[in-house]
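note to self: dont lose this again. the chain is below, predicted strucutre after it. 147 aa total, dont forget to put it in the shared folder this time
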Amino acid sequence: MTLNRDARIGRSALLLLLSEEKEYQEDLISNTNWSFCEGKVGSMEAQKVVAAIETAAKNNHIIDKDLYREGHALYHAIIEALHGVTRGEVQLGSVLRTVGLTFAVLRGSPYENKAEGEWIAVALYGTIGAPVKGAEHETIGLGINHI
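---
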């Protein structure tokens, strides 16, 4: 089981999210044949963040909405990414915190042996803080799960 150094799905998801150049997206897709989507979400409720990312992934055909295992893999990747954003406790409104996030969802095969299957990565970047303009700071999170 060797991870392909040129196809690291977590690194690629973060670069996709943080890159302001569309050339990176084009290169990623042409060199890997992976699929991805991007979006934005802001909320004081973690379930709204999860729902926005799941909806984007389904609408952009990153996951098959009729296959439980694909939705389940995405859910775990989202929760892992939210743990990074919220520093371990996936709580927002109940502790008076709000987030404004951009996200990238990336699906592909990061291993040289294709029998290892596909994986999904969720990268989140934005701000978190008290629900008062100017009382926030940057945050980032990454979640990766096998499908």
